[in-house]
Amino acid sequence: MKAVKRCSVLTSLLFLFFAGAACAQSDPGVRGGAAGAGQPLASVAANTPVTILDFFNDGLGRFSEVDSVSGTIEAGVGLGPRFNSRSCAFCHAQPAVGGTSPFTNPQVTDASADGARNTIPSFVTANGPVREARFPFFFNSNGSPNTNAPNGGVEDLFTITGRSDAGACSLPQPSFAQAQATNNIIFRIPTPVFGAGLIENIDDSTLLANQNAQAGNGLGVSGTFNHNGNDGTISRFGWKAQNKSLLIFAGEAYNVEQGVSNEAFTQERPLPGEDQSTGLPTNCRINGTPEDHTNFNTTALGTSSDVVGFAIFMRLLNQPTPSTTTPGGAASISRGRSLFSAIGCATCHTPSLTTASSSLTAGLNGATANLFSDIEIHHMGTGLADNVSQGGAGGDQFRTSPLWGLGQRIFFLHDGRTANLLAAIEAHQSNGSEATQVEENFDSLSPSQQQDLLNFLRSL
Amino acid sequence: MRLAALRFPLLVTLAASLLLPVHAAAQDGGDFSHNPDAQKLPTNVILLKGAWSSASDSSTPIPESGKVAESAYHNDYFGLRYALHPGWLEKYAGPPPSDSGYYVLAQLRPADTSKGATRGSLLIVAQDLFFTPAPASNAPELINYAQSHLPADYKVERPPTEIRVAGHSFVRFDYGSPVAEFHWSVLATQVRCHVLEFVFNSRDSKLVENLVQDLDQMKLPLEPGATPGASSGDLPICIKDYATEENVVERVDPVFTERHFNSIPVRVIVDKDGRVKHIHFLSAFPEQAKAIADALFRWRFRPYLRDGQPVEVETGLWFGQMPRRVAAPSAGAVNE
Question: Mutate which of A204, A334, A350, A396 to disrupt the B interface (most B C-beta within 10 Å)?
């Protein structure tokens, strides 16, 4: 943050003398031009094996589908009774379907779509990031957070109450104002899923070998892995690497974010702690469960459930294509790439890892995933801690965020707190963070070197 | 009589509740509560820790308990005192010990007023040789491992070389990044079966050299493996893999109530009678630490004899899921 403040103060002073003067280094901003992501893997685009492209397109269609409660208003079935948005593609939108928060926040429309009567929380704004909210701790009966009662589950923003297809269902929204007043709320923004099939197909042994190769780094970095609670293998999806596979990831998101029960998460989901004895009110349970399921009345593409379709779509999405010239030109980007490694960013943001052999398609088979992540979870200190535990990850541990596609992202960090890349870099430094020394190295670069590094990141 | 006695407090409670301000009923965990006077959570504090470090008592020094005070970094566990370069400070504390036994003991740097080429940093880190993922059992091997894994565009400026610093044997290894114009100098020694490293970094190679020369003023125990510590009496002898079937006379396995699949590195000090005297959990969930402590305090070891006399031993054990390693660390790591 300090560099940003320094920068803005400097800018203000210079402006007094030279109108239009700017800082020596600055975030080039969201890279324009065509979306560098959103296409299928090359082997999928070539329809190898035969019909795989049909499955990709079917998954894309499902991912883009808008849900209503019973499928009578919009085609999708099962929305709510609690939800954060109405379609995967509403939130995973930038710069293409499968990405992350778009410029215009769809949640503002979701709040009142089809007659819904939701209050829009103050942290959801028209041009802000798509957000889900979590309360790190349950509240005491007097409304104070109880630090002996960890919560951390998603508090869905909206309910179907008032929608024309919701019948008599009447549910209150959580007390977001109370949570904000007591600092008992954190946010998450959508993770982009481009190249997700490559991440899924990196063998544990590859991740472990990469971890071992970093032992003895002189940077204060030493991460660990989150593990799947069932078989103990390395989990890898989500902000804390809490999900093992894309199928689990899809099933959880469909249930938690859109309120659609499915074959992976079979019940309608109440809020954490919401009337666990009897569950949601009967008149809010409008459909039989699971609402999304295998379709037994067809043998065509439509047989699969939505969550299977989502997982196929994400698995077959190609990794983002970086620009070689924008922003700043090829030479600056090349220097920035070297600096990225030289100052230690690449210790955690591993530039590339190789996938295992794949039974699905050539594009996933022994492929180079330029993900810029080690898939480890690292202590990120007090400045980024959200006090939410997921699997083995504690309140300040986060998965190294893959940086591919970063050039066309709008919002940064797990909660979307900034749209300024410099601020995101500075946030890596705080008490208890493994990245403090690397961030210190960034601060020690000259302004032109910092600009090269920023240009490189925005080329991704 | 009994009913009447109950009735009075009930009435008082009822009356009191009518006088209290009316809040919306806390419904099912309080997600719907409204109380403007509710207590706030502190900001910038890690309240919910995952696997973290802890110890069975607070009086026995542990590696991460070092502190910067009075312009010096003090570490009672390593018997270390390092006077900070003038104008330097610790702005941010390091992370907790890792589950591979890596410690960031101190991150030192000039005050914010220093900029550009005069910037620099000193990272004091330690790697527990009982738990390192690198195939290394001493400081030279660990530094050689680091050299073999340097990024391709780094340039070795001084290959690992044995030198004397503050009367102790160190390995010095210098390297640089031509593109970033950074210079690093790593000085490593071995204390209590840890590799203790001083990692200097600056764009100014002269500053790095001055800082390295300053290191000669620090205080360390007389010699790795020597018994007198800087702050207390005799130090235990550290021996890797001492908790073998041959040496553990009585063993009780911990009973875990939850599965986490994490690796739990634990250092113990065994007293002269073979009882566990102190436990240091480098990384464990609280309930894991409790279960392990309950078990370990019931273990009995064969007393370790030196010159025919029993002495205290410090050793390491893994609990939970054994770390999955692609290269086996070499055996060894003993200070005797």
Answer: A396
* B199 part of contact set with chain A, CB < 8 Å: yes
Inter-helix orientation angle A330-342/A447-459, to 10°: 100
Q: List the single residue in B with minimal CA-CA distance to A6.
A: B112
Nearest chain A residue to B120 by CA distance is A444
- Which of A156, A334, A379 is best to mutate for the B interface (most B CBs within 10 A)? A379
Residues forming a β-bridge with B190: B195
A216-240 pLDDT tens trace: 899 999 999 999 999 999 999 999 9
Q: What pLDDT does B203 receive?
A: 94
Kindly give, in sequence order, each residue whose CB lies less than 8 Å from that of residue A150, ignoring residues fewer than 6 positions away.
A136, A137, A138, A387, A389, B48
Low-confidence ranges of chain A (pLDDT < 70): 1-23, 275-277
Q: What is the mean pLDDT of chain B?
A: 85
A387 with B48: Cβ contact below 8 A:
yes
The DSSP H or E segment spanning B191 is strand B182-191
Residue B42 has pLDDT above 50, yes or no: yes
Can you name the residues that pair with B185 across neighbouring β-strands?
B174, B200
Q: Which of B28, B31, B98 sits opposite A224 (nearest CB)?
A: B98
Q: Do A143 and B132 touch (CB under 8 A)?
A: no
Helices A52-64 and A306-316: crossing angle, nearest 10°? 120
B100/A215 Cβ within 8 A: yes
Q: Which helix (H) or strand (E) holds A207?
A: helix A204-213
pLDDT, average across residues B120-133:
96
At residue A394, the 3 state secondary structure works out as: coil
Q: Specify the pLDDT at position B37.
A: 82
Q: How many CB pairs under 8 A join A and B?
A: 257
- Candidates B17, B23, B33, B181: best to mutate against A (most CBs of A within 10 A) is B33
Task: Count CB atoms within 10 A of the CB of residue B209.
Answer: 15
Quick one: pLDDT at residue A237? Answer: 98
Question: B118 vs B302, which has greater pLDDT?
Answer: B302
Say yes or no for a CB contact (<8 Å) between A385 and B45: yes
At B220, which amino acid appears? L
User: Residue B156 and residue B148: Cα distance in Å, rounded?
Assistant: 11
> Of the candidates A147, A383, A432, which has its C-beta nearest B95's C-beta?
A432
Q: Decide if A143 and B23 are in contact by the 8 Å CB cutoff.
A: yes
Q: B32 pLDDT band (50/70/90 cuts)? A: low
Coil, strand or helix at A368: strand
A29, A30, A31, A32 alpha-carbon torsion, rounded to 10°: -120
pLDDT classification of B153: cutoffs 50, 70, 90? confident
Bridge partners of A378? Answer: A398
B148 touches chain A (CB under 8 A): no
In angstroms, the separation between the Cα of residue A365 and the nearest Cα of chain B is: 22
What Rg, from alpha-carbon coordinates, does chain B have?
Answer: 26
The Cα–Cα gap between A27 and A420 comes to 6
Q: B332: Cβ–Cβ under 8 A, 6 or more apart, which residues?
A: B129, B137, B138, B240
CB contact under 8 A, A227 and B95: no
Burial of B162 (C-beta count, 10 Å sphere; 0-12/13-18/19+): exposed
Cβ proximity of A412 and A424 under 8 Å: yes
Q: Quote ipTM for the complex.
A: 0.91
- B146-155 b/e (C-beta count within 10 Å ≥ 16 → b): bbeebeeebe
Instruction: Convert the pLDDT of each residue in A258-313 to its tens digit.
Output: 999 999 999 999 999 886 667 799 999 999 999 999 999 888 889 999 999 999 99
Number of helices followed by number of strands (H, E) in chain A: 15, 13
